[in-house]
Predict the structure.
Amino acid sequence: MSSHDSDPRPLLLGGPALGLRLIVLALMAAGLMVADQRNHHLAAIRDGVATLAYPIQWAVQAPVAAWAGLRESFATKTRVEADNVRLAADNLVLRLKLLRFESLEQENQRLRAVRESSARVVQRSLVAEIVRVDLDPFRQRVLINKGTRAGLFRGQAALDANGIFGQVTRAGPISAEVILISDPEHAIPIQVNRTGVRSIALGTGRSGLLSLPYLPQNADVIVGDLLVSSGLGGVYPPGYPVGKVTAVVRDPGQPLLSIEAAPLAGLDRDPEILLVWFESAVVEPEPEPEPEAKPATATVAPPPAPKPAQPPDQAQSQAQRQPEPQPLPAAAEQSPLPSPGQAPAEPPPEGNAP
Amino acid sequence: MMRGTRINFGWGRVIGLTILSLAATVAPLPSFLELYRPDFVALTVLWFSLLAPRLLGLSYAWCAGLAVDGFRGVLLGQHALTLTVIAYVASKLRLQIRAFPPLQQSAVILALLWLNEFLLFWIDGVAGHPVTDWRRWVAVPMGAACWPLLTALYARFAARR
């Protein structure tokens, strides 16, 4: 454009004009950050930038994807045959399981009808491909090739064939960002399948590791236990596998156990994931960027909750029916404080104020 | 090394270079290399601020930063702020920096990239999702090490008619 050597303008640029521009631009950036942090105000700008970025992101990963496709198409005949045999065997086993599953599902629905509680099962799903770009080495997030045009929404659960994968954090028109269950900002309400103990599994930032920091020393958890989603919070469908416990450390000096689990979903190797729609029995809260992060403290509370604040008869009936899931923690899950504890605490300040 | 360079850039080349460096920041790499990826957009912004501050000033740095935010899906405005700040420092000191020998130049670039990363680290913390992993600082010396190579490459790109 302009040749810099023959530029007639003064040699030393800068001075007040440059400083002023810095201040104006820095204030604009700060304003953007505040608006973005406070959420939802910038959805249009963010979607716009993401939509513009998507073709480039797609183009960047295209050679890698093409290479993978090429290798696939040159796969040897013997491997394809071996795969075929294995898949046919798998199919037989799965069909057999499905036969039993259908009768169990019927029975479950009848039982739930008796208890007047509705079942939450996945009704519809959509396959999305993971766009192979590295968004941030320190955050466990991926980009997928479906967006709001395909009906995706923020806070939607994503699964793969082996378990729960994550949830949608940002849904643009043609692409969406999914946070993995192993992201350090993610937490998922889980239940130990063997005993029904509920807790929260936090991501650690490493794709093969979840941590369960909120279980007391006397909780019944052993290595090898299957963790399934409890469905509290309404983001994930209940009863889907999340991970397997790999280590339980009982340090008598600590009030809580330190438990590690390995996610079952192939978080770092899945080429595609399933986005699911299911009917939620609880009224869904306004989806937050990390909807489960706050309830973490709330769900630690439920075990002691019935003791202080409940009317005696109700507390007793709850103690008797301990093993099965109660509606109470589901309500507690949505507000940061369990309501039974809050109710008696509120009136006195109101009485004192006037 | 840069004194002989004549900057003769059309907007097409500017945009092309920006898109290339944006693509380089998200291109899939094997996971062990991922940590060592230099911040190419910051290097490009620094190069323009040192060599052609009249052509592409702070507003360019700001827009490039916003593009990075959009690309990586992080808080909108954080790279915009940090890149504007380092572009300001670089264009203020550009006459001195351009006279430095290559090694010293790399040292200045190291300091600027460190400032960039520190501001990002700070914003991450204030925004409530801190990344305290020490490995986030590994990319800073990598960027400074890439600087001489990058300038040679860009100078060729700029000189071609």
Notes: The first strand of chain A starts at residue 122 and ends at 131. The CA atoms of residues 197 and 297 of chain A lie 16 Å apart.
